Structure formats: structure tokens, C-alpha cells
Amino acid sequence: MSAISIYHYLIVAAILFSTGLAVAITKRHFVGILLGIELMLNAVNLNLVAFSRYDSDRLSGQLFALFVMVVAAAEVTVALAIVLRVYGHFKTVDPDKLDELKR
Amino acid sequence: MEVAAFYGFSALAILAALFILFSKNLIYGAFALLLAFLGIAALFVLAGADFLGVAQIMIYVGGILVLLMFGIMLTQRAIQQEGPSRHNRVEVPITRKVWGFVIGIGIVGVLAKIIFSANFRMSGDAVSRKSTIKTIGVELMTSHLLPFEIAAILLLVALIGAAYLALNRNPAQ
């Protein structure tokens, strides 16, 4: 088991996190931004699980990752409901076109 | 064997994530996210978190991804003026793309520098032979009981709030 050091997990999680951040920045669709956020949350979970390997009698990292999953599920349901309301009202899914507060 | 599995699954997750970044069609992006979630679930199992791997597949692949696909399909236009090949297209302006790449690569560099200069000193060895389900259950019911109950309330509130928000309150339709 010790063949894979913790640095491998951390590097993979860092690459996944920054890819998710780039997705959340570049997409011009609300659901695309949500895809990026889910990817970032998963990368953070990977970090927590990798550190939790060294804490096998309490597993705090895995418990925290479990709560992160719960919060992600709640977040995505509410966000999709808001996206559907915004789409029904403004007929667009582009966040750049919703500039009512700027006018 | 284990090292090969680790590299294979991490390559799967990273390539799927990069495919999301470069694909123009959001449905393809959602399916690539499915692959990324499966790769991360396999990485969880390789890190000794068997329960979290199963929970990842059940919650993310079975719940969140299906919701995201519903969101993509419900927000596409009913009448496409530009032809059927332009469904779910996401136009990306060039400044946003440049900023996304600059910030993404910058974050990778900063995080790699921090990780390699951190010099972690672990207090124990990586023991992951036994199953984690018993430990997780005991910890959830003893020392993490209050966060557990708060998570239950949060899920209930999110369910009611999402159902109320998504109701069609327009009497004309």
C-alpha cells in the first residue's frame, strides 16, 4: 500500500481542482459552471481521503468527505432549481447576459 | 499492479476533466464528468476508502449527474434557429478562455510548489487493510452525531426549497 505516496494523490487532486476551476471560469452556461464546481469538490474529497489513510482508527478525513458529499448534493439541487427559474424568466443560460443589476 | 491501477485511474479522471474543459457540447461534458467520477471513486478505493467509493458512485453518478443532465436538457432551447447541430453549444469568448488557462495553470504551479515543499510528517503508517464501514458508523453515531443530524436537516431543507423554487408558478402556461 505504501507504494503510492501521498504526493501522488495530492498532485492528481491539484490537477483536477485547477481543471475544475478553469471549467467554471470558461464555460458560459450555468450547468457548465456547476460541472466545474462538482469537479473541484471531488478533488478536495480526494485530498481528504488521501490524508485519512494515515488516520485509520478515527477516519476524520473520510467523515469530512462524506459531509462534503451531502453539502454538494444539497447545493446542486438548489442551484438547478434556481437555474430553471432564471431560464424560465430570462430565457437564457448565459451568466454574462444577466446584467440587470449593472444597468 | 496497484501502481499501474493508480496511474490508469488517475489518467482516466484527468483526461475526462480535460475533455470537459475542451468540449463545446455540454452533454458530452456531462458524460465525461461521469468518467471522471468513476475514476475518482476508483482512487478512493485505492486509498482504502471502500465505503466512500461506493457512496461516490451512488451519490454523484446516481444522483448529482442525473440532475445535471436534467438541467442541461431542460434549459436547451425548444426552437433552434441555427440548426440541430448546435444543441447545447457553449460559446466561449477568447478573453475568458485565456483567463481560464492562465488561472488554471497558475493554480497547478502554486499547488505543486506548495505540495513539494510541504514535507509532510505522518504520525502513523498507511494502514488500509480492514474495512472502514465499522469505523465510519461508530464515529458518525458517537462523536459526529450533531453534524450528522444537521446534514439530515440540511438535506430536508434543500429538498423542500428546491421543489418550491422549481414549481411553475406562471398561470399562463
From TrEMBL, chain A:
Chain ranges passing through the membrane? 6-25, 32-51, 63-87
Coiled-coil residues = none
Q: Which Enzyme Commission number(s) are listed?
A: 7.1.1.-
The record describes its membrane topology as: Multi-pass membrane protein
- Domain of life of the source: Bacteria
Q: Which UniProt keywords apply?
A: Cell membrane, Membrane, NAD, Quinone, Translocase, Transmembrane, Transmembrane helix, Transport
**NCBIfam families listed in its UniProt record:** PRK05715.1-2 (NF004320)
Indicate the quaternary assembly: NDH-1 is composed of 14 different subunits. Subunits NuoA, H, J, K, L, M, N constitute the membrane sector of the complex.
Q: What task does this protein carry out?
A: NDH-1 shuttles electrons from NADH, via FMN and iron-sulfur (Fe-S) centers, to quinones in the respiratory chain. The immediate electron acceptor for the enzyme in this species is believed to be a menaquinone. Couples the redox reaction to proton translocation (for every two electrons transferred, four hydrogen ions are translocated across the cytoplasmic membrane), and thus conserves the redox energy in a proton gradient.
What name appears for this protein in its UniProt entry? Answer: NADH-quinone oxidoreductase subunit K
UniProtKB/TrEMBL annotation, chain B:
What PANTHER family does this protein's entry cite?
A: NADH-UBIQUINONE OXIDOREDUCTASE CHAIN 6
Q: What keywords would UniProt list here?
A: Cell membrane, Membrane, NAD, Quinone, Transmembrane, Transmembrane helix
Looking at the keywords, is Transmembrane present? yes
Q: What general EC class does the enzyme of this chain belong to?
A: translocase
The Enzyme Commission number assigned here is: 7.1.1.-
- Which membrane topology describes this protein? Multi-pass membrane protein
Q: Where are the transmembrane segments?
A: 6-23, 30-51, 57-77, 98-116, 145-167
Function, please? Answer: NDH-1 shuttles electrons from NADH, via FMN and iron-sulfur (Fe-S) centers, to quinones in the respiratory chain. Couples the redox reaction to proton translocation (for every two electrons transferred, four hydrogen ions are translocated across the cytoplasmic membrane), and thus conserves the redox energy in a proton gradient.
Source organism of the structure = Dyadobacter linearis
Zinc as a keyword of this entry, yes or no, is no
The identity of this protein, by name, is NADH-quinone oxidoreductase subunit J
**Subcellular location as annotated:** Cell membrane
InterPro entries (alphabetical):
NADH_UbQ/plastoQ_OxRdtase_su6 (IPR001457), Nuo/plastoQ_OxRdtase_6_NuoJ (IPR042106)
Identify its protein family.
Belongs to the complex I subunit 6 family.
Query: Which reaction(s) does the protein catalyse, per the Swiss-Prot or TrEMBL entry?
Result: a quinone + NADH + 5 H(+)(in) = a quinol + NAD(+) + 4 H(+)(out)
Question: Where mainly located?
Answer: membrane
